[in-house]
Amino acid sequence: MDFGITLPPSATVWRDAQIAEASGFTHAWFYDSQLLYGDVYACMALVGAHTRALKLGTLVAVPSNRIAPVTATAVATINAIAPGRVILGIGTGGTGRSTMGLSALPVREFASYVRQLRGLLAGEDVLFREGDAERWIRLIHGDRDLGFLNLDDPIEIHVAANGPRALQVAGEFGDGWITPLRGSNALAEGFSAIAAARTQPGLPYATALTAACILRDGETFTSPRVMHCVGPNVVVRAHMAWESARGGGGLGVTDAALAERYGRYIDHYADAKGSAPDRRYLDVHEGHLLYLKPGEEAFVTEKAISSALVGTPAQLLARIRELEAAGVRNLAVQLVGPERRELIEEFGREVISRL
């Protein structure tokens, strides 16, 4: 099992990455959400220059944020800084779109974008479309040793997918599959859908995204520290249910009762702030994967916490072995809070070093 640390891009994120590398993490995954965090590629380049072996991946890049040749150039530039250590994780769009009040990118457009990226990163000519215009493009100096880009060391493309059509894209074009942490049955269904669309043998490298927290003496799932560590991750389900109920992204999460409850909460919260009613989606994502807004702890239940990677070291080790047996190759864990660096070291010491 490989372990990744998920990091919101910032100018100081390289320090967290160095600690993660020293603690046994093999990957660092970076969010691409332009209204929430720093620029993903600028921060990945910084981490690449300050680490030695850590693999660097987007989790996940959003196609509508940048045209395909810009994304290809960005990752190929980082590949020149950190040769052979770059992964392009890509999806139809989470908060990169929902914080702008937009739904996920249609899968047809997504597949076309991934196809263009694969061609460009292979040094090929690809057909680029803008409106009614169609033009052939390539990374013109990609095959020359001028120091701009590195296309010699392969850049893997890992596709974030949950629905059937996105899973087909993962099967057709993906070197890897990115998914939220799920049970063995859901993983098996996902692998089966990918295999049906796959033209090469074997299953893709699977990365499961989750929050993590090691329980300390006397702690339970609902202890304040645990809520603080895991709450920002599990409350995202309420955010997505709210979006789905209003015709937004929601990544397929439909829960009418949860959406209604969260709608009452966010209206009260936003009204108290004086936010405009037509911009509630901005308030929903305040603190996204960073902290709980006042009152959001009501949506962090013991059942929700139990779906994350939470338990004693022995319990986590047992669950990790089950996930590995189910086909998961990488656990991308979110560790949040001002003590984040201490939590990274603790996870390395109590979990990674014991596998």
The rough form would be described as globular
Strand order in the sheet with the most strands: 1-2-3-4-7-8-9-11
Radius of gyration: 20 Å
Q: What is the average of the pLDDT values?
A: 95
Number of self-contained structural domains: 1
Structural class: alpha/beta
Low-pLDDT stretches are none
CATH architecture grouping: Alpha-Beta Barrel
Write a structural description.
With 355 residues, the protein is of the alpha/beta class. It has one domain: TIM Barrel, CATH 3.20.20. Helix content is 43%, strand content 17%. It contains 14 helices and eleven strands. An eight-stranded parallel barrel has the order 1-2-3-4-7-8-9-11, surrounded by seven helices. A two-stranded antiparallel ribbon has the order 5-6. β7, α6 (164-173) and β8 (176-180) form a beta-alpha-beta unit. α6 crosses α7. The radius of gyration is 20 Å and the shape is globular. The mean pLDDT is 95.
Quick summary:
By secondary structure, the chain is an alpha/beta fold. It has helices spanning 13-22, 40-50, 68-81, 95-98, 107-121, 164-173, 184-197, 224-234, 236-245, 256-273, 280-284, 302-306, 313-325, 340-350, and strands spanning 2-7, 27-30, 55-58, 86-90, 126-130, 133-137, 156-160, 176-180, 205-214, 309-311, 328-334.
Q: Any chance you could write out the topology, listing elements then pairs?
A:
Elements: E1 2-7, H1 13-22, E2 27-30, H2 40-50, E3 55-58, H3 68-81, E4 86-90, H4 95-98, H5 107-121, E5 126-130, E6 133-137, E7 156-160, H6 164-173, E8 176-180, H7 184-197, E9 205-214, H8 224-234, H9 236-245, H10 256-273, H11 280-284, H12 302-306, E10 309-311, H13 313-325, E11 328-334, H14 340-350
Parallel strand pairs: 1-2, 1-11, 2-3, 3-4, 4-7, 7-8, 8-9, 9-10, 9-11
Antiparallel strand pairs: 5-6
